Amino acid sequence: MISVNDFKTGLTVEVEGDIFTVIDFQHVKPGKGAAFVRSKLKNLRNGNTVERTFRAGETIGRAIIENRAVQYLYNSGNEYSFMDNETYDQFELEKKQLEWEINFLKENMTVNITSYQGEILGIQLPNSVDLKVVETEPGIKGNTAQGATKNATVETGLTLQVPLFINEGDVLLIDTREGKYVSRA
């Protein structure tokens, strides 16, 4: 158990049977009435964000989240197969659990799996990945206004904005948190 007075950003807690991570919190001491903690929590099972208010000093369950390194193997339809790097056990996750992460997954890539008491909550990608451009329009000579961009599709199917000098076959460094171009790799 943990007191809501001890909230920190990134802390994982269990509230009413769901697992949440603390995104933001604020301790409030009104001039009249009891103190309370206003918080913004992200549900780790479905990704929804909720705002909750707790009385100061209230205790809630602490959720211990386990992270393990796994290797992405392949996908077949809506199933994505992974292998644990330590035990070599293989398991599948459904496409709906990996909606954002699919944009960056390449075969044989190492990612971290997040689980709580044996229940797999999702995967954590590295902050950036290298992906090859498979389709883009050619840069038009003379179209060099500052910050000009064009669409490019990378090997995983993600379409993003890139500078005009990027060509098909280039390998790009892409930020997985926002899905944006960082640089050429």
UniProtKB/TrEMBL annotation:
Pfam families: EFP, EFP_N, Elong-fact-P_C. It is found in: Cytoplasm. Pathway: Protein biosynthesis; polypeptide chain elongation. Residues 67-121 form the Translation elongation factor P/YeiP central domain. GO terms for molecular function: translation elongation factor activity. SUPFAM superfamilies: Nucleic acid-binding proteins, Translation proteins SH3-like domain. InterPro entries: Elong-fact-P_C (IPR015365), NA-bd_OB-fold (IPR012340), Rib_uL2_dom2 (IPR014722), Transl_elong_fac_P/YeiP (IPR020599), Transl_elong_KOW-like (IPR013185), Transl_elong_P/YeiP_cen (IPR001059), Transl_elong_P/YeiP_CS (IPR013852), Transl_elongation_fac_P (IPR011768). Residues 129-184 form the Elongation factor P C-terminal domain. Keywords: Cytoplasm, Elongation factor, Protein biosynthesis. Involved in peptide bond synthesis. Stimulates efficient translation and peptide-bond synthesis on native or reconstituted 70S ribosomes in vitro. Probably functions indirectly by altering the affinity of the ribosome for aminoacyl-tRNA, thus increasing their reactivity as acceptors for peptidyl transferase. Belongs to the elongation factor P family. This is Elongation factor P. The gene is efp.
